[in-house]
Design goal:
Rossmann fold; 186 residues; 32% helix; single chain; alpha+beta
């Protein structure tokens, strides 16, 4: 399930007074897999609901989480670096982070077919194709639409300085930067 779908589902249950009952569905599995964390930012309610899910599952059940955002970018996902730090504090405790580098396996066949060259072959072209190249069929139900911008995947102004979080007022340990592939509590 994508992070956006999960938070949307719980967000619909909240005004109907069913949040506790609906939350139990996501607390029951031994392993909860959340895909595309950070693909879309969460509003205040979504961030709060996601935080509640993480703290309720903390040390009770495993979470596997995929994201293309570095830890330092998580403040922009949740709209607040403090809540991002609190969430990461619990996710990273007893966890392993796997960084996946290299070319996307989904793009391999397109590159072989010559639809776009490698970035090192043509310095004038972006490393990733435009979203129009991916508009060749229906998306699976519930999947997110392709990015509409050519902006880089990292947030502008991201700092590699790990003390930045402390300077912004966080009492928690600073966020590490890098490409988190997934989290898994063990």
């Amino acid at each position: 399930m994508t992070a956006h779908d999960l938070v949307s589902d719980l967000g619909r249950a909240y005004p109907e007074g069913r949040l506790d009952r609906r939350m139990r569905i996501y607390l029951a599995p031994k392993v909860l897999i959340i895909d595309e964390m950070g693909y879309l930012p969460l509003d205040d309610m979504g961030a709060t609901i996601f935080f509640q899910l993480v703290i309720t599952r903390y040390e009770r059940g495993s979470i596997i989480l995929t994201s293309n955002k570095s830890y330092g970018d998580w403040g922009s996902i949740f709209g607040d670096p403090i809540i991002a730090t609190a969430i990461l504090d619990r996710l990273l405790h007893h966890s392993t982070t796997i960084k996946i580098r290299g070319e996307s396996y989904r793009l391999k066949d397109r590159r072989k077919a010559g639809l776009f060259p490698r970035a090192e072959e043509d310095g004038n072209r972006p490393a990733f194709p435009s979203p129009e190249l991916f508009q060749n069929g229906p998306r699976r139900q519930g999947s997110a639409a392709p990015r509409k911008t050519g902006a880089p995947l990292t947030a502008p102004g991201r700092s590699e300085n790990p003390t930045d979080m402390r300077e912004r007022g966080s009492r928690k340990s600073p966020l590490r930067t890098g490409f988190p592939g997934c989290f898994h509590r063990h």
